[in-house]
């Protein structure tokens, strides 16, 4: 239905309602999101908004049918949508510019210093627990000093490899990039030249003697940016991008700390006073207690984390309102899931077991499946002798085609040495060299080595006799037919209204 008039004068001039599907409004911005996103995949190039609007209305009708069927209420469905949203919102809750600048700073530092690139190392390593006894520690140090002295006198690759094999808790060489291993390990490894061996040194894991096997140059910033960001956050236990975003949001939402309440909390460990205000709402010591119960840490660290979580939680609630693109991304994912589910119920599950429906559809549209050139439907028989091939061909003539392969297997190939090799099907010119030779009079085909005598049995046909010969095409066509019937039913039982005046303004406002 096309509509206009006073009933639509109330819509927002900024983002007017473009259509109503089953009573639900679709804003112009939502339609534009889908239209512009799908534009790249239009098979025929440009599709006018007027034509796309009909497709989009059908899409919305199917989603509405899925909602009516309650498919959006399943726990697994809701969890999928929530997990997808959680992946998307990370970028909205992080100041990506701060992260990239920090990653660039670290990269430049790595490139300028000895930590550039990667080093492949082998090491003699003894693990030392944190509560190692003094006696065990002295014994480990003495052992490593003895190994180092031996290596200093025997500076051959074989000597170092032998010590690794005999004494080390870690036997395999490995690559080291900056921010990947403990600082103590990296400081030593990156200072060494290829082939050089370190003196014994400690890390939090134990005691090491390291040998650098080879070095690689520093990759480009774009290649290592993500890895640098992750490693820096892991090592320092903080995400500066999130912290920077929280500081921005504090200003945006009027964050105001209450010094009296915070001081009392830090001094006594508890308070009922207001700790801070955010977006006009007071957050008190009671709110903090509930958070702190699930976040064991010192009181100051708990308070900082509580403030950060409160700011991020509030922003999380506001994201879809602030960023329509995010809202439409999540909604699109949800709708596509629902579309797949309802289509599976209405179409796919019907096609699978519906052999009779496929055959009936094929019979009704048989003329659609005629071939432009004749094909050969039959069997190709390769035999060990001319007599065997002749016998097999004569025998198969008395049997239905669907029994041919079993007859060959049980009659001619039952013994230890098969006598016939058979190929059965429908062949176009060029599909099989023997059919081309014997049926379509093409090039002479070279005989098979073990089965040098060949004959064919069958006939030339202009079209398939059974839908299974062109099953993929029939399934696709039958599916499209069922979908058209479904859409017709949805259109008959639902109401679609499109505001043509608003539709004319798509991507032009």
Automatic annotation (TrEMBL):
The keyword Transferase does not apply. Its EC number is 5.2.1.8. GO terms for molecular function: peptidyl-prolyl cis-trans isomerase activity. Residues 116-214 form the PpiC domain. InterPro entries: PPIase_dom_sf, PPIase_PpiC, PrsA_foldase, Trigger_fact/SurA_dom_sf. Pfam families: Rotamase. It comes from the Bacteria. It is an enzyme of class 5 (isomerase). SUPFAM superfamilies: FKBP-like, Triger factor/SurA peptide-binding domain-like. Keywords: Isomerase, Rotamase. This is PrsA-like foldase protein. It comes from Bacteroides stercoris. The lineage of its organism: Bacteria, Pseudomonadati, Bacteroidota, Bacteroidia, Bacteroidales. The gene is prsA3.
């Amino acid at each position: 239905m096309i509509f206009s008039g006073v009933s639509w004068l109330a819509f927002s001039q900024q983002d007017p309602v473009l259509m109503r599907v089953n009573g639900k409004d679709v804003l112009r911005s939502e339609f534009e999101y889908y239209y512009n996103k799908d534009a790249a995949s239009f098979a025929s190039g440009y599709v006018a908004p007027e034509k796309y609007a009909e497709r989009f209305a059908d899409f919305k009708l199917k989603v509405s049918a899925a909602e009516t069927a309650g498919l959006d209420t399943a726990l697994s469905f809701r969890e999928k949508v929530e997990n997808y949203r959680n992946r998307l919102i990370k970028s909205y809750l992080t100041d990506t510019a701060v992260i990239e600048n920090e990653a660039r700073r670290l990269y430049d530092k790595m490139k300028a210093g000895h930590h550039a690139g990667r080093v492949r190392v082998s090491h003699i390593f003894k693990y030392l627990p944190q509560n190692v006894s003094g006696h065990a520690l002295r014994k480990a140090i003495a052992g490593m000093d003895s190994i180092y002295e031996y290596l200093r006198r025997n500076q051959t690759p074989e000597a170092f490899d032998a010590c690794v094999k005999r004494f080390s808790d870690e036997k395999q060489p490995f690559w080291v990039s900056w921010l990947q291993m403990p600082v103590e390990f990296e400081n030593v490894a990156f200072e060494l030249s290829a082939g050089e061996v370190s003196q014994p040194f400690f890390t939090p894991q134990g005691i090491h003697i390291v040998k650098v096997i080879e070095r690689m140059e520093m990759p480009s910033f774009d290649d290592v940016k993500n890895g640098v960001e992750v490693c820096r956050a892991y090592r320092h236990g903080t995400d500066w991008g999130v912290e920077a975003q929280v500081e921005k949001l504090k200003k945006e939402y009027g964050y105001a700390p209450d010094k009296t309440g915070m001081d009392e909390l830090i001094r006594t460990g508890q308070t009922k006073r207001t700790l801070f205000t955010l977006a006009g709402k007071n957050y008190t010591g009671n709110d903090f207690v509930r958070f702190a119960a699930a976040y064991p840490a010192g009181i100051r660290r708990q308070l900082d984390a509580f403030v950060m979580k409160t700011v991020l939680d509030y922003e999380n609630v506001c994201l879809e309102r602030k960023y329509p693109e995010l809202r439409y991304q999540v909604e699109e994912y949800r709708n596509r899931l629902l579309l797949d589910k309802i289509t599976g119920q209405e179409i796919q599950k019907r096609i699978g077991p519906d052999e009779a429906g496929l055959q009936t559809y094929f019979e009704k549209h048989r003329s659609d499946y005629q071939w432009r050139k004749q094909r050969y439907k039959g069997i190709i028989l390769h035999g060990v002798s001319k007599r065997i091939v002749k016998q097999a061909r004569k025998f198969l003539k008395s049997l239905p085609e669907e029994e041919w392969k079993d007859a060959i297997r049980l009659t001619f190939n039952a013994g230890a040495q098969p006598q016939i090799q058979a190929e059965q099907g429908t062949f176009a010119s060029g599909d099989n060299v023997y059919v081309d030779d014997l049926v379509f009079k093409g090039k002479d085909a070279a005989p098979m080595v073990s089965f040098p005598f060949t004959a064919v049995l069958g006939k030339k046909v202009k079209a398939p006799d059974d839908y299974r010969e062109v099953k993929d095409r029939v399934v696709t066509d039958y599916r499209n037919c069922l979908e058209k019937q479904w859409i017709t039913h949805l259109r008959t039982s639902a109401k679609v209204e499109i505001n043509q005046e608003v539709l004319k303004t798509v991507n032009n406002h």
